[in-house]
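hiii, so i know i said id send this last week but things got crazy w the move. better late than never?? heres the sequnce for the chain we talked about at the cafe, plus the structure i predicted for it. fair warning i was half asleep when i ran it
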Amino acid sequence: MTAARKYEIGSSVRCSDGECGELVCVVVDPVADRLAHLIVVPHGSGQSRLVPVERAGVEGGAVVLDCTRDEFSHFETAVRTHFMNAEDEEEDRYGYRGDEIMAWPYFGLGPARPAMGLSAPEPVLTPWIELEDRVPVGEVRIRRGERVHATDGRIGHVRGLIVDPADETVTHVLLDEGHLWGHKQVAIPIVAVGKITEEEVEVRLTKHEIKDLPAVDVGAGN
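okay and structure toks below
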């Protein structure tokens, strides 16, 4: 497997003209067992971006994109924020008209109570914030640290994926180093993986079988 690519969540991400962010999630098609997208958070500030895996590679442990930083900033956002006024949303949610709903006032930056002789402040009307997940339908987002379960209990957390660059098929799921493995990096073959969700990964092996898995050679350049 010397040609395999290791996408380790938390790796730095580079564009053709410099570093552009950090890999925070991998997005897989669980039906095809294929890596489909990467979610990259830019350095400094800015919205996370949904990057097609076809635009990515791995060099020296870093993820490398075949685009400039400006082009990276134009990839689709991974999460989109909507600010909705009460008239748009609250009648459906609570059965009241928008003008009948007020939020609790926020006093975190002001006095705990009104000064003597002054009336209490009016409740503040605030918009609802709705987060729209931009991950394509049918694909599953995997973050580092998501739980991995063997047939006889929890065995650790996800560290990343190993894929075949020929077709981006996921070949192994990487586990964080833990007390069961010492300093050995454990890679579970995808054929032994049952269900992948955004909460956990199920493995059709026992803890003992996983502990005896052979090491996977990913190659020095990947």
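btw Helices lie at 69-72, 86-94, 207-211. thought thatd interest u
miss u guys!!
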